[in-house]
Design brief:
Protein name: HTH-type transcriptional regulator PgrR
Largest sheet: 5 strands, mixed
Structural class: alpha/beta
Family: Belongs to the LysR transcriptional regulatory family.
Oligomer: single chain
Distance between the termini: 85 Å
Order of helices and strands: HHHHEEHEHHEEEEHEEEEHEHEEH
CATH architecture of the largest domain: Orthogonal Bundle
Pfam families: HTH_1 (PF00126), LysR_substrate (PF03466)
Number of helices: 11
CATH superfamily of the largest domain: Winged helix-like DNA-binding domain superfamily/Winged helix DNA-binding domain
Domain HTH lysR-type: 36-88
Number of domains: 3
Keywords: DNA-binding, Transcription, Transcription regulation
Shape: rod-shaped
Number of strands: 14
CATH topology of the largest domain: Arc Repressor Mutant, subunit A
Low-confidence stretches: 1-27
Mean pLDDT: 83
Radius of gyration: 33 Å
C-alpha cells in the first residue's frame, strides 16, 4: 500500500518516540531520575552553565549526569562543542515529553510546601447532620472568606464512619463515640439531652414531673440509621445516680431530626434532642424544657483526624477555626 509522505512521517515519529519511551521505561530506576532532571534543565537553557546555576550544582556534575543518561539509553541526546550546544533529534523528542512532566512535578511539590503557609485544597469532613447544621453551616461564609484557597465538602452520615476508608480528612462526632486511636479536639462544651415541647402542649397536657410520667404523654420518636427507635436517656437524681432509658410512646415517628423539631413546634408532642439543636427555640420561648435534673451532661462534639504527625495545614485550619467558635458557643448554652 502506498501512503502519503506526511502520514508516513507521523508514523515514523510515533515509532521513534515509542522507542525512546520504551528505552526510558525499561531503564527506569531511582538512580536514573536525577540524570533525567539534569538533562531537562540543560536542554531547556541550551547551556550547562545556566542550568548548573539554576540547580545549584557544578557544571561538571551536570555533564557527568547527562553522559550517564546517554549511556543508559544508548542514545545521543546533545551535540556539544566548545562554544555551542544543541539537541539531537532524539534529545529533542525526549525533552518535549520529559520537561513538561518535570515542571508539573516541581510545581506540585512547590505547592505542597506552600500549603504550610496558606491552607489550600479540598477538606472532606464526615459529620452527623445535627453537627453540620449547628456547628458548620452557620459559619460557612466566614470560613470561605478567611480561607479563600480552601474547598470544604460535608459528607453527611449519622452512623459511625471510618473516615480513612471513606477518604475523608476529618470527622465530627460526639466524644464518647470516638475510636481511641483518633486525634480528637472538643469543639463544643459539654452537652445534655433536652426534653422539650411547646408551652401550649404543656398547658393542655400538663408537665411531666419524672421520666416515668412520659408514659402519659405523646412522644415524638426518632428512628436511627440502625432502624431502632431512639430510647430516651436519663440519669437518676440520687448521689452516684445510674443511667437508664425510657422507651418513648407516641403517634409520630421520623428519621429526620429537623422534621421532629418542626412537629414539636406545632405542639404535636414532646421530643428529646441534644440541647444544642433546640437552643434557639428555647431562647425564643417557642419550646420549653422539662426534666432537666434527670439529664446529665456528657462529652460534646469533637473534630477528629487520623494522626497529629504531619497533619495537613488545611485540616489544622479547620480544627483551629472550630475551636475558636467553641468559646462563643459556651455562652449560648
Amino acid at each position: 500500500m502506498q501512503c502519503r509522505s506526511d502520514v508516513c512521517f507521523v508514523i515514523d515519529i510515533n515509532l521513534h518516540y515509542s522507542c525512546i519511551l520504551k528505552l526510558t521505561m525499561n531503564s527506569m530506576d531511582p538512580s536514573l531520575l536525577p540524570s533525567l532532571a539534569c538533562f531537562a534543565h540543560v536542554a531547556h537553557h541550551r547551556s550547562f552553565t545556566k542550568a548548573a546555576a539554576e540547580m545549584g550544582v557544578s557544571r561538571a556534575n551536570l555533564s557527568q549526569n547527562v553522559k550517564a543518561l546517554e549511556r543508559r539509553l544508548n542514545v545521543k541526546l546533545l551535540y556539544r562543542t566548545t562554544r555551542d550546544m544543541s539537541l539531537t533529534e532524539e534529545g529533542q523528542r525526549l525533552y518535549d515529553v520529559w520537561y513538561p512532566a518535570l515542571i508539573t512535578v516541581e510545581r506540585t511539590v512547590r505547592t505542597m510546601h506552600d500549603t504550610h503557609d496558606e491552607p489550600s485544597g479540598l477538606v472532606r469532613v464526615n459529620t452527623s447532620r445535627v453537627a453540620a447544621k449547628t456547628l458548620l453551616e452557620p459559619h460557612l461564609q466566614e470560613f470561605c472568606t478567611r480561607f479563600p484557597k480552601l474547598q470544604l465538602e460535608l459528607v453527611m452520615d449519622d452512623a459511625l464512619a471510618n473516615i480513612v476508608a471513606d477518604g475523608c480528612d476529618a470527622g465530627i462526632r460526639i466524644g464518647e463515640s470516638l475510636a481511641e486511636h483518633m486525634v480528637a479536639v472538643p469543639i463544643t462544651p459539654a452537652l445534655e439531652m433536652a426534653v422539650v415541647a411547646t408551652p401550649a402542649y404543656f398547658e393542655q397536657h400538663g408537665l411531666p414531673a419524672t421520666p416515668a410520667d412520659l408514659s402519659q404523654h405523646n412522644c415524638l420518636r426518632f428512628r436511627q440509621t440502625s432502624g431502632a427507635i431512639h430510647a430516651w436517656e436519663f440519669t437518676s437524681r440520687e448521689a452516684g445516680g445510674h443511667t437508664f432509658t425510657v422507651e418513648p410512646q407516641g403517634r409520630i415517628i421520623t428519621n429526620d431530626d429537623d422534621g421532629m423539631i418542626r412537629a414539636a413546634l406545632q405542639g404535636a408532642g414532646l421530643m428529646q434532642h441534644i440541647d444544642i439543636a433546640v437552643r434557639q427555640h428555647l431562647k425564643s420561648g417557642a419550646l420549653v424544657r422539662v426534666l432537666q435534673p434527670w439529664c446529665k451532661p456528657f462529652a460534646g462534639f469533637y473534630i477528629y483526624a487520623p494522626t497529629r504527625a504531619q497533619m495537613p495545614t488545611k485540616v489544622r485550619a479547620l480544627i483551629d477555626f472550630l475551636v475558636a467558635k467553641r468559646e462563643g458557643m459556651a455562652n449560648l448554652l
